[in-house]
Design brief:
2 copies of one chain form a homodimer. With about 300 residues, the first copy, chain A, is of the alpha/beta class. Chain A is built from 11 helices and 13 strands.
Chain lengths: ~300, ~300
């Protein structure tokens, strides 16, 4: 089943205790799409400049990602760089050059408009809403956001998420959006804003799925070594949404617990792989067998 | 089966965003013993002053805890007070009056010496070792420690844990003791120091059990409201060790995965109850039915 993925396609510079890469393929849309492509037919919606390299486009094409919706315009591709602390729990942004991304105003190609699923990466909520409005037969949609939009464009964000079936944000964002520190209370407040299903990511500790009737805790995988956490949350989103799209779920509100819990674990699996190499390195080479093996490991270290 | 619990019996003053209690029963030995008493025959080893109130002794007696090993000496009982931050993730110690605890030098009553199990709360490692030496037929023993001893008495601590079958410490302590930030690596280093089984507590995020052949992640219970986290880690220890003692496990190295995983969940269950009221309030009223109900909730929100 087709899944629209909307967000940033970028070049990233990343420094971690394991090394430094000056410039490599990145962006939320890239990570989400690559992770989701393991499960579903992904239709990417993004924008890049003239400097976007054929080999990077090739990575996306090799994963069967539909690039009809990737605009190429004069100018430079979005560039971000950041450095992680020694324990990798803190990240400092060094550069944010929006470049062509500043004028991103996504229009869905006609073949994209009938896609049943969409995931909106972290971009301006007005753009997320605008794309949602172009979908002709949505089954369900969801997305991510960040502190910047919660603080700066709260009303627009509230308008946008009213129409979302699920939202996938981290614990700090959930607290900021809801005004409640306790995660169960925060999830209730956010549920009242529109999304039936609320997924709260907790970094290395995993993620929690909240639905009106209960919750499910997915632990984080304990890696022997974390190379680069950039994109782990987006890879989680890709695994979660990709798996649900693969299953052809009609409606997330009525999806079975079994499906949603599996989606959470596939999300965690994809997030864990993402950290094993710099940038999209691990997502490039990953295959479904490796994913299923790690899924089984999750079963093994959680069952009692 | 009898379980020795060694540690501090104290009076605590606690301030959280939910209120303030000037003086109430506390101490690691108290929390561990009350939690473990739900499962096993607990023999307490501790020291109190003349101010130790009969009603507080009554709480312990009501839980069937053997107080033969509770010394009462002239002077005042250990007093500690602390205040929690708004989100309760940080705690500031306001007072530490060791009082009679400064001269604690535990001697096991003769009826205690044949107990098969022991858990050593966070006290000077030399005292932990000294008590271990008085046990005549230990099946397995384990304990806790803290940054203060890891930094100040590292060699004595290393000597002490050489003889432990398991150690139960938090993530910061595991990193400090092992010199490794990554938890899997840290657990390996600590395993090499002696303990076959390493349990690393991660506060609200739960705990991880490491054994040479693999690991198990127990998530933290998501409470709707955390009243007072004091004693949660000790209650975890009591639930974990109490359950293993109840099962009459011969040897923790050879204990089944099923038993150890259940012990982890009972630990988490006891830690979660502890936070629901100030001090030992919730542990006082708790019954086994409530424990089993919450155990089932853990199954419900983790299975997939």
């Amino acid at each position: 089943m087709s899944l629209l993925v909307v967000g940033s396609v970028a070049y990233d510079g990343v420094e971690t205790p394991h090394g430094k890469v000056e410039r490599m393929l990145g962006g939320s849309c890239t990570y989400i799409s690559l992770a989701a492509s393991q499960f579903a037919d992904v239709k990417l919606v993004g924008i890049v400049g003239e400097d976007f390299a054929p080999e990077d486009e090739g990575i996306l094409v090799d994963h069967g990602i539909d690039l009809t919706g990737l605009e190429k315009v004069p100018g430079k591709t979005f560039f971000w760089s950041g450095a992680y602390s020694q324990n990798m729990n803190e990240r400092t942004t060094l550069t944010t050059d929006l470049n062509v991304f500043a004028d991103f105003n996504p229009n869905l190609p006609s073949l994209y408009q009938s896609a049943p699923y969409a995931f909106f990466g972290n971009i301006h909520p007005a753009l997320q809403k605008q794309v949602r409005g172009q979908m002709k037969a949505p089954r369900f949609v969801g997305g991510d956001t960040m502190n910047f939009w919660i603080e700066g464009t709260r009303e627009e964000l509230r308008e946008t998420i009213k129409d979302w079936d699920f939202i996938l944000i981290n614990d700090e964002e959930a607290r900021l959006l809801s005004g409640d520190y306790n995660l169960r209370q925060a999830a209730k407040r956010i549920h009242e804003m529109g999304p039936h299903t609320v997924v709260i990511k907790r970094g290395e500790y995993g993620a929690v799925l909240f639905r009106p009737e209960g919750y499910f805790i997915a632990p984080g995988f304990l890696l022997e070594s974390v190379f680069d956490p950039t994109g782990a949350g987006d890879s989680f989103a890709g695994g979660f949404m990709g798996y649900l799209a693969e299953q052809g779920i009609e409606n997330i509100d009525q999806a079975s617990h079994a499906h949603l819990r599996k989606a959470m674990i596939y999300g965690s699996v994809m997030g864990s792989f993402c950290c094993e190499q710099f940038g999209v390195g691990r997502l490039r080479t990953l295959n479904r067998d490796e994913i299923e093996t790690r899924y089984k490991e999750f079963k093994e270290f959680t069952k009692f």
